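Hi support team,

I'm filing this because I wasn't sure whether my run with 2-oxoglutaric acid finished correctly. The job status page said complete, but I'd like someone to confirm that the output block is well-formed before I use it downstream. Pasting the exact inputs I used:
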Amino acid sequence: MTPESKLANREAFEREGYQFPIQAMTAKEAAGYRAQLEAHETLNGGPLQSNMRHQTHFLFTWAYELVHNPKILDAVEAVIGPDILCWATNFFIKEAKDGNYVSWHQDATYWGLEPTDKIVTAWLALSEASVENGAMKFLAGSHRSGQQPHKDTFHENNLLSRGQEVEVEVDEDRATDVTLSAGEFSLHHVLLAHGSHPNHSDGRRIGFAIRYIPTSARQTKLRDAAVLVRGVDNYSHFDLLPGPEADLDEAALATHADSTQRLIAAVYEGTGKTELRA
Ligand SMILES: O=C(O)CCC(=O)C(=O)O
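And here is everything the job wrote out:
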């Protein structure tokens, strides 16, 4: 990326609070990652277990590879700078017609990460994301209004940890449909209002959300952990955890359990809940 295109991308991101579509890989490569996910599911006799939908990059070498994808990191670097941690990953999978949705929300609400100006999600499509199958919707510029109040619903079809919903009225006519082909991704700001409707299609909608933060960011709720994916960490605000040597080996399961406990402690603070949903 040239310095000029980096600057243009950063300015557009700062204005809108998002950027898409950006290509991470070919459709064929995306199908290869999807096949690895689905091979595990077939072996396991059903869709990816809910506890494995979070911090998945600690469990599978292919997911660890995804959080290091150079095209994704180039786009992230253009908006948050060169020293980058991956704080979390979450699979958002909607099965055909399963009724699951994501209410309008801002990611920053329960994460405890500060400052919020350089925290982004790369949402990678491992299937197509269309209006019919429940692609995300973004409200342009909403990140500039700062943190809004939310209420927890814990609705059973809501894919968010607390079923949290922003308490201000969202005019969906103003929203942008984040349609993506497999292998493309979007970037969104941690304060951008976004959500998604159910999947009305006959196929799965598979998104892998990767949460990136600069090494200078802080976790205000606890001693947290992350993976250094680019640059150097001169701050030591987070414990740096290793990736998996082999899929689901003992060390991978232990690191996954450690990072998941920290994630639960942050996002469920004050609720008494101990298991992440998906
Ligand atoms: O996958 C979706 O529909 C929503 C994802 C989301 O809310 C996020 O990645 O922050």
